[in-house]
Design goal:
Layout: H1 2-14, E1 23-32, E2 35-38, E3 51-58, H2 64-76, E4 96-101, H3 103-106, E5 111-117, H4 125-137, E6 141-147, H5 152-162, H6 164-168, H7 173-182, E7 186-192, H8 209-217, H9 222-231, E8 235-240, H10 245-252, H11 261-280, H12 289-304, H13 310-351, H14 356-376, H15 388-397, H16 403-411, H17 414-442, H18 451-477, H19 482-531, H20 533-539, H21 542-550, H22 566-585, H23 591-617, H24 623-649, H25 662-689, H26 695-723
Parallel strand pairs: 3-5, 3-6, 6-7, 7-8
Antiparallel strand pairs: 1-2, 1-4, 4-5
Helix pairs in contact: 1-18, 2-11, 4-12, 5-9, 7-13, 12-13, 13-14, 13-18, 14-17, 15-16, 17-18, 17-22, 18-23, 19-20, 19-22, 19-23, 19-25, 19-26, 22-23, 25-26
């Protein structure tokens, strides 16, 4: 609870200017033995919200880094931001470099990931294919830079690199069709003007899309051009004005030169077209920095793969992600509606007391649905490409093409597991919370008929507070102290699982021992019912049958009555569910994890305080023993004086001893023989029911014998008086 109370203050302190500043540029994908390796900085994973990616690629020394620098300065207003560009003949950029501009810095609806690519022709042929494939698969918009004119040679370069997709897709037309539907990026060809081919510069930019389509439709190299049209379903081309030498030198130092203003304006036109293309694909963007990093790893694993059909696996993975995003949007919309429905039930229960039982069950179902919406719509969930469920589903899909099997495989994801965990947590937390809230309300001077309504209202307020605190919790969880707080919360949950599991196991073993001890007593009850007519009549009554219809016959002995295990089971299940949720969202966490770990920590402290209190008060004596010992002491004190006086007045008189006759001795021996036969039969029956008699079972046997002797003693007295 203390953690929750300090969340807003810590969020305000931790949310500095670093959250609104650009992250990077830094290496995101590097070369490792001719293979690409995703190495995103940790600062990128701190982002929460949609992240749109645009990659700028092309030949070396065409101005990719310079254009990205101008875009960043235009969006953020920071003239000191510079994408590193090589000032020699050797390229500085290796692999892929990225800079993420947070939405707070740009004013956009999403974070912007600007990706700078190494020159495509600086590496060997295989590395070219892998680098180009990564440039195509990572972003939603691909900017390809050329010089002066889109000609066949450049189109051949573009198509030759695109041939890598034929290997990845195993030349499958169906794979290319699915690729164009879910993965094909929007292509923007930027023609860097180094010659005055179109006359005077146009400040509004030149649209060269018709020139691009004409080049793609011209005769020659038909297969290459068809491949480009297959990969890039939507495309356009724009002109970038010439950047004079004086303006290039000024741009490197962060100074705006007059000669470079036309270049900047044309670059802003291309930037606006890029942002518009990203807005149209905002639904397919990764929803957090963690998801962006996972997408980088999935793409790198695909382009490095030597297996045929690697692209099909990535396409299937993208389809799963698309389904998960659509479901998250539906759950986000449903959270507010279900919360309003729960509030309506709270108001209705205040005026319709006769419907309280049914409203309570409906509120329980609504609370479960609320938990599913809250967890299922979480942006912290990630679905890796190489997960166990995904590998199994890919194996099944290659052998079974049935629609229902494909749908089942699409459902096997982290979102499905999150929905199951949410259902369990919602079902278990409702009785725990309502019980505690009813106890709190009983301490207040409120009418009893309004308790149910107030409990539901408090649940609505609790859910609303979790949503309001979510943003503050995100600022704290994604900050520098997030890992430490996650470790402390996970530690409290693990300790809660151990404590509740031990308590549950102890109660189960104790119940098993009580059941075994009571078996002999229940077995001897048969003889008592056969000998005593009053007991037999009692078993035939309606009250007897009603009682044992509602209560188990195993708990008929109060000394061996079993204890309930539902509370320990519920507490163990909810702590385990929170641990599973922490595993799904690792290394980040949300308001539910913070509230759950704080609640479990407080409960553990409460249990520790109760244990210390018993140890302090006590010597291990239970309440029943204290009560019995108190009664004995009071009775001894009250009867001490009258017994002493009576002892002084009268001496004890010994009863007369009457000798037994032969008939009495014979009758007593017959009764003793009958008793021994009954004891042997009872022992044989007990061996069938249990093999390990305990001390409690021995005490139960003794009680049964005493009861049998008490039944036989009146018969002996009657026979003795008749003989006398």
């Amino acid at each position: 609870m203390a953690l929750l109370l300090t969340l807003p203050l810590l969020a305000v302190i931790g949310a500095g200017t670093a959250a609104r500043a650009a992250l990077g540029p830094a290496p995101a994908v590097a070369w490792r033995n001719s293979e690409l390796s995703a190495e995103l900085p940790d600062s990128f994973t701190h982002l929460l919200g949609a992240v749109g990616s645009v990659c700028v690629t092309g030949d070396d020394r065409v101005g990719k880094s310079t254009l990205l620098t101008a875009w960043t300065q235009n969006l953020t207003g920071r003239e000191d931001f510079v994408f590193p560009a090589g000032q020699t003949r050797d390229s500085l950029t290796k692999g892929l470099w990225s800079a993420v501009l947070p939405a707070e810095a740009t004013g956009l609806d999403f974070h912007l990931n600007l990706c700078d690519s190494q020159g495509l022709k600086q590496v060997n042929e295989l590395e070219q294919w892998r680098l180009f494939a990564a440039n195509v698969l990572i972003p939603q918009t691909l900017v390809y830079m050329t010089i002066n004119v889109v000609q066949n040679d450049q189109l051949r370069d573009l198509a030759r690199m695109a041939h890598q997709f034929q290997l990845l897709a195993n030349s499958s037309k169906a794979a290319f069709a699915r690729f164009g539907r879910v993965l094909s990026p929007h292509l923007i060809v930027v023609v860097r003007e180094e010659s005055d081919l179109d006359g005077e510069p146009n400040e509004n930019g030149r649209n060269l899309t018709a020139h691009l389509e004409q080049a793609l439709s011209s005769p020659g190299f038909a297969a290459d051009k068809a491949l480009i049209r297959q990969i890039f379903r939507s495309r356009e081309a724009w002109s970038l004005e010439e950047l004079p030498l004086e303006a290039r030198k000024a741009l490197r130092t962060g100074v705006d030169h007059v000669a470079g203003r036309l270049w900047r304006r044309s670059g802003e036109v291309v930037l606006q077209r890029t942002v518009d293309a990203l807005r149209s694909r905002q639904r397919t963007m990764p929803q957090s920095g963690l998801e962006l990093a996972e997408w980088y790893r999935s793409v790198v694993a695909t382009v490095n793969s030597h297996d045929e059909g690697a692209l099909e696996r990535l396409i299937g993975h993208t389809e799963r992600l698309d389904v998960a995003r659509q479901r998250q949007l539906l759950l986000q919309d449903g959270f507010g509606r279900i919360l309003a429905l729960l509030a309506g039930m709270a108001l209705l229960s205040a005026f319709a007391a006769s419907l309280g039982h049914w409203l309570d069950r409906l509120a329980w179902v609504a609370w479960i649905a609320l938990a599913v919406c809250f967890l299922g719509a979480s942006p912290l969930l990630r679905t890796p490409l190489g997960g166990v469920a995904q590998r199994y589903c890919d194996h099944v899909m290659t052998k079974a093409l049935d629609g229902w099997m494909r749908q089942v495989c699409l459902e096997a994801s982290a979102q499905t597991l999150a929905g199951a965990v949410a259902s369990v947590l919602g079902a278990l937390s409702y009785p725990l919370l309502t019980r505690q809230l009813k106890w709190l309300l009983s301490l207040l001077p409120l009418p009893a008929q309004l308790h149910r309504s107030f409990v539901l209202m408090l649940l609505v307020l609790l859910a609303a507070c979790l949503m309001l605190l979510q943003e503050a919790v995100n600022e704290l969880a994604f900050g520098d102290r997030g890992s430490l707080l996650f470790a402390s919360g996970a530690g409290s949950l693990i300790l809660a699982v151990i404590v509740h599991g031990a308590a549950l196991m102890q109660q189960v073993l104790q119940n098993h021992a009580y059941t075994a001890a009571g078996d002999r007593g229940r077995a001897l009850h048969f003889y008592i019912a056969e000998r005593d007519a009053k007991v037999a009549e009692l078993e035939e009554t309606k009250e007897w049958r009603q009682h044992y219809r509602l209560h188990s016959a195993t708990d008929c002995f109060w000394r061996f009555r079993r204890g309930p295990t539902w509370q320990q089971s519920v507490q163990l299940a909810q702590a385990s569910g929170l641990l599973v949720w922490a595993w799904l969202t690792f290394p980040r966490w949300d308001a539910l994890f913070a509230a759950g770990s704080a609640g479990n920590a407080m409960h553990l402290l409460h249990l520790l305080a109760r244990w210390l209190r018993r140890r302090w008060r006590g010597a291990g004596e239970d309440e029943v023993s204290k009560w019995l010992s108190g009664l004995e002491e009071e009775q001894e004190d009250s009867d001490a004086e009258p017994q002493a006086a009576a002892k002084e007045e009268a001496e004890p008189v010994a009863p007369p001893v009457i000798p037994e006759t032969f008939e009495e001795v014979q009758l007593r021996m017959e009764i003793e023989q009958m008793r021994q036969e009954q004891e042997r039969a009872a022992q044989a029956r007990f061996r069938l029911t249990t093999k390990t008699p305990s001390r409690q079972a021995t005490e139960c046997q003794r009680d049964g014998f005493i009861a049998l002797v008490k039944l036989v003693k009146p018969l002996l007295n009657m026979c003795g008086s008749w003989l006398l």
